[in-house]
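Page 42, continued from yesterday. The earlier attempt failed because a stray header line got pasted into the input along with the sequence. Redoing it now with the clean sequence only.
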Amino acid sequence: MGLEMKPIGYVSTDAKEIPRSWKVSNVEGVLVIDEIYLEGLNDIKPGDQIYVIFHFHKSPKFTEQFMRIKPPIHDQKVGVFNTHSPIRPNPIGLSILDVLDIEGTVIQVKGLDMVDKTPILDIKPESCP
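This time it went through. Structure tokens are written below.
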């Protein structure tokens, strides 16, 4: 079974240091979404929180050696599925970001844990209306 995903946009940030998790991040940047999705961004507004699903495009290929890793917050190795590690069998990330502003297809956000030019796969509301 094949699986194909196409990015809907990308992250843009000037930040040089990116935290490993959105939970501890104050980094600001923008999500630049492709114009064809403009109508789909209706109703996102400042003050909202959004789930952003993205591709860890700079991560090395996952191998068995990454099944257990030692994250910075642990003193021993733990299973990869108990971490926020970007080195995963499927290099997909999930963050909850605060929407600061939105203009057209550009969403200004806070809480980035993604590097500049990270491909965005999807956006979902943190809570449905």
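Notes: The radius of gyration is 15 Å.
Reminder to self: strip header lines before submitting.
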